[in-house]
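Homework-ish question, so no full write-ups if that breaks the rules, but can someone show me the predicted structure for this set?
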Amino acid sequence: MARKPITRFVCTQCQAVFPKWNGRCDVCGEWNTLEEETISVTPNRPQGGGGAAAGKPGRLITTRLDGKATPPARIETGMAELNRVLGSGLVPGSVVLVGGDPGIGKSTLMLQTTCALARSGHDVLYVSGEEAIDQIRLRARRLELDGDPKTLERLELAASINVADIAASLEEVKSRKVVVIDSIQTMWLEGVSGAPGSVSQVRSCAFELIRLAKTQGFALVLIGHVTKEGALAGPRVLEHMVDAVLYFEGDRGHQFRILRAAKNRFGATDEIGVFAMTDAGLREVPNPSALFLAERRGNIAGSAVFAGLEGTRPVLLEIQVLLSAKSGDGAARRAVLGWDSARLNMILAVLEARCGLKLASMDVHLNVTGGLRINEPAADLAVAAALISAATGQPTDPNTAYFGEIGLSGEIRQVPQTGLRLKEMAKLGFRTALLPRHVGSASARPKAPAGLQLEELGHLADLMKRFASPAKKTAEA
Ligand code: TYD
Ligand code: MG
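A: Not a homework solution, just the prediction itself:
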């Protein structure tokens, strides 16, 4: 029996569903976000399946927790940085959403990946709803991806937005191991209301493609655009439907691109992949620290090197601070790029209250170089060092790197993975590490790698002491 079409309204911001249109969403309070959705199609059931899938009620089979469990198979993508973020490759039958701002390099990343997959013998389908075949070919030529016979044989290109066509082709040719859809917002399914990109279209198209991936066992990569606010444009509901969500981030003015997992059913979510966008496409960056520090200029006040951690990977970064006299009558400006402005305010408050360093009358600009965004409280000590250095006009030692969390009483607190951070410092030729004072058993005290000297700090005042006061410096001059 055919189902009667249902009309309902879905908020593009929060996905709340209403029976009637309203100017404002009652759930999230946004204006003009309700979009009409007509549900008239019953999604196809997998054919030939047994049990409930075939329409018959099945019996629920339950089992014990301690049975045999095999880890999922993986398809090596040929891109080490991507494999790392996925957790050693794509899982057959899984669905990965790759989000990111327009122009950040999602299509480039996936074109390079599909070519690498084809080169290593996997059948791959790349469907573009955004670009014509000519454009894709020209890009591939520019990236010198079109010369390898194996790639040409294994990689199929298509320009289409019609999900029914794509589905028909996928039902017909079952050898494909990986299918890339660029982008899900351009896809369209007949019988579903709304234009491509609307909640109902995106959801229905994704549902149909995901169903095919699950029944046929190919890995599906959906590319999606993200708005400035960081939400996947329109249908955030996709995040719940897929197995992994990766964000491709970076500043378009910078070379660096970071691939970060926001969700991963088959691996950790704290790994990052680092790439550099060059004239010849994306280059993988196996040693990000060296690259992030490459343009560092010594002997400038207001800069300090932070020994950070992204996932299991240590990364050394430069933190820069610029102080200038407050402009205007209002509160001083706190401009922060790549870090948390609330945390900067906290450190400024602690510096004033516990060490007497007053910066309330100064505008503070803080920048993490390279366009990377850090979330770790471990960066506190390096930020404080950069602030004190800027305030006193004394450069930090170029061979010193910092890490440690700062508490409200000015104490320097321990952070995880000291050993990894120290090893990375030593590897890059740093000679001194300023780190939190060790508490706990002496046997657990971190060991210094060869060539690196450890200097433990218990309180922010100990850090202040390492810089002469501005008055003393002028007196000496
Ligand atoms: P693209 O992959 O089209 O971005 P997205 O799919 O995320 O919208 O990449 C767009 C930008 O990347 C474009 O502005 C130019 C730049 N780019 C390079 O710098 N070098 C290259 O080799 C390529 C292919 C692109
Ligand atoms: Mg694109």
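Now go work out the reasoning yourself. Hint: Residues 199-216 form the longest helix (18 residues).
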